[in-house]
Amino acid sequence: MKFAFLIHPISEGTSTLIDLDLGARLKSAWGQDSLLFCAKFHETVKQSRAAASSPASASSPAVRVVDEMRGIVSELNAEATGRLYEIPLAPGQFIDHPRMAVEMMGEAVSMARDWGAELVGLGGLTGIVGGQGVQMAESAGIGITTGNSLTVYSTVECLRNLCDELGLDLSQESVAVVGIPGSIATATARIVAESVGRLILVARRDSTRARKLAKSLDAELILEIPSALEQTGLVITATSSGGCLDQKWLQPGSVVIDVGVPTDVQGSSRERNDVMILSGGQTRIPSSIALDSRFLWFNQGVIPSCLGETMVLAFEGRPDSLSLGRNLDPSDILSVGALASAHGFDFSLFRSFGLELEDTELVRMRKRLARTRMNEALSSVRRAESSASDSSQTAEPNRRRATSNGNGTGSEAGTLRHVSANNPQRSLENMAPNARQKFGRYLNPVLMELTESTDFSKTFVRGEGAYLYDCDGMRYLDFVSGFGSVNLGHNHPNVVSAIEQALREKAPGFSQASVNPLATSLAEQLVSFAPESLEMVFFTNSGTESVEAALKLARTATGRSGFVYCQRSYHGKSLGSLSVTGNSDYQRPFRPLLTECRAVPFGDLDSLEHELRSRRHAAFIVEPIQAEGGMIVPDRDYLSRAHTLCQRYDTLLIVDEVQTGFGRTGRMFAVDEQSIHPDIMTVAKSLGGGAIPIGAMLCRRDLWTKVYGTVQTYLLHTSTFGGGSLACAAGLATLDTLQNGELIRNAQERGDELKAGLDRLCRARRSLREVRGCGLLLGLEFNPMSAAAQGHWKQMAQTRLTRRLVPGLDKMLETMSALYTMQTLLSEHRIYTQVTRSNPLVMRVQPPLLISSEQVNTFIDAVDACCDEMEFQRTTIRDVLAKTGTGRHNAKGQSADDKSPSIREDAEGHPLAAQRPATK
Ligand code: PMP
Q: CB of 693 closer than 6 A to ligand 1?
C-alpha cells in the first residue's frame, strides 16, 4: 500500500538560522536531534528547489515531495511505499496561520491521493492544527492519522522499560504527566493510571476537561510544572508548545520522558548529570527495512512513532483514520503497538538529545536510585524503631515513591520481613527478555555483540537432561555440557534431591574451621574413587583454584619453584594456572607471570626429560587429553612414561582431570585407563553435578603432611567457600550416581558410536579433517576455509558486525567452517555446540553422559547436512567467481594461483595440505 507522511521544516531557512544562532536559542527551543535533522533536511530541500524551480516559485515555496521510501518491507514481509511531503511552513506560521497550514496540508493530501496514497500520516505540527487531523479527515477521501496512538504506545513502553532498567517498581512510583488535556498526554495518563502508584496530571490552565480526567483517573491535578516536579522525579511531558520545562526545576535523580513537539525540556543538552532526559515517542525501524533513503531519520534507524504508525497501517493494508482528535482509544493504542512490534518496530530504545543513551548513564542512574532506596529503607526502619512522635523529624520526606510499603506508614518496626518464597519478578521467564541487553551492559559487550550478530548464542532458561530450552520454549540438544561440567545432564534428579535434602535439613550455609559432615563424606568418597596414591583432599570452587592449590603444594613440598607444562595446555586463567597454560594469547597481556615455567610439546617425552634434567622443577602438570587445546590425545603410554621420568628426576606429577574427570572419557578418571598414580590430581567441573561449583585438589598424604602438617602450617592454604554444604551435597550425589557405572558405560558406548559416525563423515566431507578424543570427550576438527570462500563470508559478516568488531574478522574467517556449522547447528538443527578455547577449528563434541543413540545419530546427520550446505555454497561461489571472471579460479574451478605457497587448494577451494582422500 502507498502512504504519505507530512513534515515541515523547523523554521524558514533553518540552516542559515543555525549559523546565525550564536546564542543557541533555536537549539534550546527545539532540542539537538530535531535541529540537526531539520538543518540537514532543509539544506537538501533547498538544493533541490534551487535546481528545479524558477525564481518566482522559489520565492513562494509550495508543497512538494521531498523523499520517497520505495518498497520497504516489514519483518512480517509486508510491503509498503511511502512519500514524504513537505509543508513549507515554520512552526510559528502553523500557530499563527492555522488556516493557511490546513490549506497547504489539504494540497499535500490531494497530491498524495493523486499519486495513489491511501493513507496520510500527519507529522509534527501538521498533527496538531485542524483539530488533530479531524478537519483533514473530513475532506481527504483517504485515511488520515496523526500517528499519535503509536506515539503514546512507545512513550508508555519507554516508561516501562526505563523502570525495569532502573530497578523501579512502577506500582510504587509517582508519575507526573505534563500536557493535559492534550491528546498524547491524556491517552498516556489513561494507560499508565492503572499501573502507577500515584498519578499527577499537569495542565497549564484549569479546565473542566482536565478536572474530569483527574477525577476519573483518581489523579491529582496540578497547574504548575515546578510544583509537580517537587512531588515526583518520574515525568512524562507531551505539550505542543515546547520549552516549558526548565532542567533546573528537576529534583536530583529525576527522569523525564519528553514527547513534546517541539521538545518540552529546555536546552540542547543535559545540563546536569544527576538527571536523565529521554526522547519519547520514537521507535526503531524494523531491521528488514534497508536504510537507503535520503531521509535522515532512516539513517539512524530511529523514527518518530507517528511515522511508525502510518507505516504499520500501510504494512497492514489498512487505510484507517486511527488516531484523530483529542480522544485516542486505549484499545487502539495497544493493538497498534502490538502490530508494530510484530512488524519488527522496536520500542526498547533510550535516546537523549538525539543520541543513543550510553549504557553507563543508565547504570549510574540505577546506582543512584538504588542508593536512595537503600537510604530510604534504612531511615524508614529507623523511623519505625523510634517513637511515633519523632518520626516527623527524621529522614527527608519520600517524594519519589508513592508509599514506602503500600500504605504510606513506613515499614513495620523491628520485624524482619521475609521475601516471599516465589518472587515472580525473579523468575527466569520474567528476567529473560532483557537478559541479553543486560549481558552486554554489565558482563561482556563484545561477546554479546559477536554472538548476537552471528546467531551463536541463545538465552537459555531451562535445562533438563541433555536438553536446554530458550525463552521461547525451543528445545536444544546440548553438545557442550557446560564445557564438561554437566556430565550428569541438566538438573539430574539425584543432584536436585540431594540439594533439596540438604536445604530441608537446614544444612549450615558456611561454617569454616568446623566439621561439616557433607564435606567429610564427599572427601571420603572422592578418595575412594581416586587413584591409589591420592588420600588427602582440599576443596575449591573452580578448576583454576584446584590448580593453584596443586602448584603451591608442589612448590613447598619439593622446595623447587619451576614447573614444566605442555604447549596448548589449559589449566585456568588465574595468575598461577595461567603461567602453566600453553596459550601465549592468554598469557601475553598479563605478563610477567610465574617465572621458571617451561613449556614442552604435548606427547614429547624427550623434551620433557630435557627440562626435568635441570632438577629445578617442582612438578610437571599435564592433562590426560588436551581438551581446550583442541581435543588432543597423546600416545597411550605417554602419561605413564612421563610419570617414570618425573620420578627419575624427583619431580611431582600433577594430572589435571578438571575436564576429563567424572566419567567423561568412559572411565571415572582418564588416568584409570593406564592405572597412573599421580602425586597430585585436580578436579572440578562435573563434581558439582552440573548444579553447584566445586573443585578439589587431591594429593599424596606424605606431601600434605610435609606442607601443611604442623600447627604453624595447617591453615596456610584455605578457601572460604571450599567444601560448602550444598556443593558437597551435589558432589556426593554425583559420585553416587556415577558409582553404578551406567553413565560411564554409556559414555564409552555412545562415544564410540559418535566417533565412528563422525569418522565416516570426515572421510566423506571435505570441510572436515578429523575426529579425536575418548568417550564423550571428542573434538571434530574442520579444515580452514579457503581464501575464495573467505571473501564471500567476509562480505556477509561485515554487514552484520559493527565497525568495532570487524578488525578481528580475518582471523575469525579462517575458522568460519567450524563457526558456520556451530551457528547452523544452533539455528536450524537446534543443537548447541561450541569450539575449543585454543583452537576454534575444533568443535567440541561433548554431550552429557546420558545421551542416547538416537541423539547421537541426530547430531551426526545434522553435521552432515551442514557440510552439505557448505559444499554447495563453496561450489556456488566458485562458479560465480569463474563466470564473472573476478575470482582467482578459472571455469574448471582450478585456482589460478595454485602455485602460490600460501594458498594451495583443490577444485573445491580446499587447502591441499590438509586434504584427505574423499571417499564419497
Ligand atoms: N583445567 C582444565 C583441564 C580445564 O579444562 C579447565 C577449564 N576448561 C580448567 C583447568 C579451569 O577451570 P575453571 O574454568 O573452572 O577455572
A: no
Question: Distance (Å, rounded) from C-alpha 625 to C-alpha 778?
Answer: 10
Q: Look at residue 900 in the predicted model and tell me its pLDDT.
A: 32
pLDDT value at residue 416: 55
- Nearest atom within ligand 1 for CA of residue 656: 3
Residue 896: pLDDT over 90:
no
Please tell me the residue having the least CA distance from ligand 1 atom 10. 571
Question: Of 88-97, 190-199, 479-488, which gets the smallest average pLDDT?
Answer: 88-97
User: Does residue 157 line the site of ligand 1, with CB under 6 A?
Assistant: no
79 CA to centre of own chain: 30
Q: Exposure of 177 by Cβ count < 10 A (0-12 exposed, 13-18 middle, 19+ buried)?
A: buried
Mutation pick for ligand 1 pocket among 542, 544, 579 (CB with most ligand atoms within 8 Å): 544
Annotate 594-632 with DSSP letters as a single string.
-SSEEEE-TT-HHHHHHHHTT--EEEEEE-SSBTTTTSB
Q: Is residue 473's pLDDT more than 80?
A: yes
Decide: 309 in ligand 1 pocket, CB within 6 A.
Answer: no
Cα of 574 vs centre of ligand 1, distance in Å, is: 10
Q: Which atom of ligand 1 is the closest one to the Cα of 628?
A: 5
**Ligand 1 atom closest to 627 (CA):** 5
Look up residue 783 and give its DSSP letter: P
CA-CA distances (angstroms) from residue 107 to 93, 139, 581?
Answer: 17, 11, 74
Which among 842, 315, 224, 743 is positioned nearest to 495, based on CA atoms? Answer: 743
The number of the ligand 1 atom at minimal distance from the alpha carbon of 684 is 15
Nearest Cα residue to atom 13 of ligand 1: 543
- Cβ contact 820:465 at 8 Å: no
From CA 556, how far away is CA 707, in angstroms rounded?
A: 6
For 664-733, the three-class secondary structure string (H helix, E strand, C coil) is CCCCCCHHHHHCCCCCEEEECHHHHCCCCCCEEEEECHHHHHHHHCCCCCCCCCCCCCCCCHHHHHHHHH
